[in-house]
Amino acid sequence: NQREIAIAIDGPAAAGKSTVAKMVAEKLGYIYIDTGAMYRALTMKALIERVDLEDENGLVELLGGTAITLEQSVNGQIVMLDDRDVTLDIRTNEVTNHVSYVAKHRKIRQEMVRRQQELASDRGVVMDGRDIGTHVLPEAEVKIFLVATVEERAKRRYEENLKKGFTSSMDELKEEIAQRDQIDSEREASPLLKAADAKEIDTTSLTIEQVAERILDEASQAITRQGR
Ligand code: CDP
Ligand code: CDP
């Protein structure tokens, strides 16, 4: 469909990217691609196989023999690592606290970007991550950069954890988020950065619906332009 566009959503941890990306994709009937899940899956495998996370070539070799697929199901996205469903396993603290060390390697990013571009080759796609607007989909018709204060983001993770049945320390969450943002922003290879042509939305005091609404507005304008 000529009128289908690509929507890139970037931003720091817990800014609400995946939640609104899913909602926007559903509204438009587009596919949703969670690029963070791909880095998380590789990190999980590296931890299991005890590959040194500083060993870039070792990780490249590991990735070369690894299939990571994102399947759309009625219950949302399923992440497959080789033949195993790792949808929940890639969200553990263990993976969360190591993923940025894997994602900082240039050669790992090159291969991930190649795979992500292949997944998005059909348009009609909403993709979220850290480098989507800058590197993965530089031609995306809509680019969004979501931000929120670190306090608000820690609070969101805290509430998310409560729903899953465990209490976490707010200070620890804040520390974990700030540390991951720092590594992601300071790495040399495609760091977390707002693309020059991205629209920044501060979600600190917005509901999920309000954020989705704004992105859908941008999308419908872009779709109209596309149709001309
Ligand atoms: O959902 P959350 O904000 O916790 O993180 P995520 O989107 O699942 O991403 C996990 C990690 O993967 C990030 O902290 C980055 O280190 C890395 N990542 C990346 O480098 N580039 C992307 N396009 C997506 C994720
Ligand atoms: O993908 P990312 O790490 O950027 O964030 P997320 O996992 O989509 O969102 C983190 C949490 O914040 C989720 O539990 C959302 O329900 C909540 N939230 C939000 O995403 N946006 C708001 N405006 C308010 C809350």
From TrEMBL:
Return one GO MF term: kinase activity
Which keywords accompany this UniProt record?
ATP-binding, Cytoplasm, Kinase, Nucleotide-binding, Transferase
List the EC numbers from the record.
2.7.4.25
What Pfam families does the database record attribute to this sequence? Cytidylate_kin
Tell me which domain of life the UniProt entry assigns to the organism this sequence originates from: Bacteria
Which reaction does this chain catalyze? Answer: dCMP + ATP = dCDP + ADP; CMP + ATP = CDP + ADP
List the coiled-coil residues: none
Report domain Cytidylate kinase positions: 7-220
The residues listed in the UniProt record as binding ATP, with positions renumbered to this chain, are G11, P12, A13, A14, A15, G16, K17, S18, T19
Question: Flavoprotein: is it a keyword of this entry?
Answer: no
Major enzyme class: transferase
Keyword Isomerase listed? The answer is: no
Q: Where in the cell is it found?
A: Cytoplasm
Which family, according to the similarity comment? Belongs to the cytidylate kinase family. Type 1 subfamily.
**Protein's UniProt name:** Cytidylate kinase
Q: Which organism is it from?
A: Virgibacillus xinjiangensis
